[in-house]
Write a structure and sequence with these properties.
Blueprint: H1 4-22, H2 26-33, H3 56-65, H4 76-90
């Protein structure tokens, strides 16, 4: 079983390091990426559309809706990876 307090500490540390690398304050970083101040998820993962079996156009639409940057030439697998990486930051 995962420790909620440990998860919050890890999130705070990770957010701080990522903000520093991006040249942002922690508050600006969290706002830009939709993260809460206490490390709680802002999105319920059960409400997000599944990615399996989607066409490239559908994946691009999901990425746009979830504010995930998709570059020209990305494969479906790369788009899925990018969406899942963003979801890992904002979901439980």
């Amino acid at each position: 079983m995962r420790c909620v307090n440990c998860d919050k500490i890890r999130s705070a540390f990770l957010h701080g390091r990522m903000a520093e690398a991006a040249g942002l304050t922690i508050e600006a970083f969290r706002e830009k990426f939709g993260l809460s101040a206490v490390g709680e998820p802002l999105v319920d993962a059960s409400t997000l559309p599944t990615l399996a079996g989607k066409t490239k156009a559908e994946l691009i639409a999901i990425a746009a809706e979830e504010q995930v940057d998709v570059q020209d030439g990305m494969t479906n697998a790369q788009i899925v990876d990018a969406i899942e990486a963003k979801r890992a930051l904002v979901t439980a």
